[in-house]
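Workshop exercise sheet. Pairs work together: one partner reads the sequence aloud, the other fills in the structure field after running the prediction. Swap roles for the next sheet.
Pair: D.N. / O.F.
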Amino acid sequence: MDVLRQTLRGIESRIYTKVAPLAMTAYATKEPVVFAERESGERLELQAGDRWGERWDCAWFHFRGTVPEAAAGRPVVLLIDVNGELCLFDEEGTPLQGLTNVNSEFDLTLGLPGKRVFRLAERASGGETVDLWGDAGNNDLFGFFRSGTVKEADIAICHEDVRQLYYDYEVLLDYAENAGDKSARTARIVQALYDAHLLLRRPSDEAVAEARRILGAELAKRGGDPTMTATAVGHAHIDLAWLWPIRETYRKGARTFSTVLRNMERYPDYVFGASQPQLYQWVKERHPKLYAQIKARIAEGRWEAQGAMWVEPDTNVSGGEALVRQILYGKRFFRDEFGLDMRMLWVPDVFGYSAALPQLLKLSGVDYVMTQKLSWSVHNDHPHHTFFWEGLDGSRVLTHLPPEDTYNGPALPRSVLKAERDYYDKNVSDHCLVVFGIGDGGGGPGEEHLERLARVKNLQGLIPVKQEPAIAFFDKLNENASRYKSWKGELYLEKHQGTLTSQARNKRFNRKLEKALRELEFAASLAHASGTGVYPAEELETIWKEVLLYQFHDILPGSSITRVFDESLARYEVLLARVNELTAGAYRDAAAAMAPSGAERAAVVFNSLPWARTEWTNAVGGEWREVTVPAMGYAVVDAGTPQALPAFELRAADDALENELVRVTFLADGGIGSVYDKTLRREVLAPGEPANVLAVYADNGDAWDFPEDYAAGGAERMTLTGARAFVDGPRAVVEQRYAYGSSTLVQRVSLTAGSKQLAFATEADWQENGRMLRAIFPLNVYTDAANCEIQFGHLKRPTHRNTMWEYAKDEICAHQWIDLSQPDFGAALLNDCKYGYSANGHTISINLLRSPSYPDPVCDRAEHRFDYALLPHEGDFVAAEVYKAAYAFNSPLAAAEAGGSAGGALPADRFSALELDGRGVMIEAVKKAEDENALIVRLYETSGANASARLQVRLAHESAALADLMERETAALAAAEAGGYELSFGPFEIKTVKINLS
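Structure field:
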């Protein structure tokens, strides 16, 4: 085969003959500039071999030349490679075609990524003028620097017969190398390749024609009646940021999409699909004529808009309502722009799949899921390629994993052979999906993919391959739905667990913004329904979409380069400040709707959670006071009269904290030796095992992964360097200072009067390399499962390692809380921004910080703030309503000055806009409807049980109805005799209520 492979390389070298160089002028800049400003950079006159910049530099190249008369009558192309990514533009400034340096980083087992050929004329006249502009980035597909020198820029003749011979030979050779049999078919193909090899030892037009005739006889042999068929769809997975900044993705989209359009002109069978409305939006804003061409191909049916989300997001860390908005904004974009109702979720590359997703998809009219990432799992193979994925609540979506295990398929015979050979469900399914093209950094299919598919679509020895949209494939797949198995729960990826922790500041901002947006939408809804405020719908949508962008699966997980996070952190800070500003304004507007209060200086304390809260707060004037605030409403307090503090049963010493409910003892090294629940008369911690141990482990992984045996090497501990104790109003506090290496950490450990919650407010200056910081809590609880909050519910995950499946899930995801419970007692860890945990036996370990060096060499070497808390409780986590404590931990009471006027629409002293009568049901969101004067109230059952609840609505309204997640009404709701609306929930069921306002 080596001889035959060498022959193929020889054929390739004879496809093009260079006939004249192109003159090149480049205008170099540090950042991209638009077409109209293309001559604004530093002018460089260049030839092949000349250097034009450093990594991430940009330049507009001006290529000029004349087609030689000798090329008349021949196909003429331009061969251009600037050792970076390039997009050629037409004279109006519209992207024409993308080109990629041939030595770009890529998995070469899937093919070569380079695109260097621009077809100038199918039959040149000679003497034509070449005058083209190209927008270049000095980076390859994966952001790497490839010398910054021009490799080539030439006019060339294309020998079409040799080009066709190349693909004939390549396809048959690939079949012979991968068929893996000794059949007559394979033997005949090898002989034909060898015969062609002998002919081509003396290259000539006649030899090429005879070689094509010999190979054509084998390519003409067709398959018989097929047992299964493959659907092939072109794709270019484009990471919106990863090893390149977001600004480069703007250009990746233009390069990729223009290339697709040019290839559609040449290959009538070509069907291409692209997901992520955010990417389409960028193209629409920057290149409207290119966007118009895309819309035309979508209308034709050859370009498939894929997916149902705004971006392809991380689904581990993103919050529940954020996932709803991904679908809401994603589907609305495709509906409004292209008239399409998206029925398929396209998420080939995200790092695990939340068990909440099936219900969210079904409630949005999405029936199908495509991914392939589970093929990356380290220890266990997912048992199915086609299956029904059953979520938390029992909702099921038909899911397919392309058995080629890639979205960058080369479309060679080996692709089709692997798909058939490795398809786990071929006994019950007649169809599988093949996804081809160059992806991750974009690029998409090249001519090579389409030439190969023309040859393999009905080739003897292969299952038939048809290019068609993925949705057509899923509809055919669904015809055998009754035969497929089910998989229940999350689709856990046994890899990339480090992404639950990497880039901690990014994750903290994400949580804070999710919670701040929830607060803003409630506040604005209250003000809007009261008639005193204007709901900032347009600005909210803009902010949400930027937050959703940063939930992309290489940004929120923390697996991008430094610049990506420098930019996201700066934007997060601006966004959070703006959301808080809007919230304060909305609460002021709501306060203006209140009747006058008798207070000397009235202040209003707001509670956005759906239960009454009695808490200590210093939100009013910085002074401590205990307030009781109704559910999803407010209470007025007199800010002019300070509250006299009672005599608290509080004790704070360097080695102890105590209130009337809990006694805490510290060890000399700062760890906690005892947490004693005085009301239950039991120790919370495992006997003889200290808690809140700040353990430092060696971690030589990258942003995605850390060594799975990290704990086997033992841990160092941060060293306590000082402690001081004090009482602050209702809080007893011990402030501890720690050091390790070049890092410091300060924790204010506190107990509040009337609460069992032991809080750890933490500030860290983390400057370590290759280290991981965890806090360890061994608990006096016997259980075989940890209860982990996820979006719209919780999962039970094993605390033992009986099987490899359980071993592989050592690092697990939890949102606001994780809990170990036995029937009579338990303890939860609450947090305000952490997601990575290990629950082994009776011990919970929370992953606080990591410091990998790739792809961001300074990942998390920075100052950090984060809070967590230990909450012991009577009964299990359901009886203790741990979810309420976690929501309150993340959503503190808010305050505003009262500004009521006579005849106010809202009561003077206290008011509950929405109230739930029933246990275990949470209101996750209150927002104005997208298209009507209505409020959307999103509720879900929290404990995994059937539940009933009455939703009391005390805002003026005309009617209420159930709706889906797209806010389409599904059933009217009749008011109960006792008032409000009766709702029934299944376990973890989500319900959306639309309240039509007066």
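Discussion prompt: The CA atoms of residues 336 and 768 lie 49 Å apart. What would you look at next?
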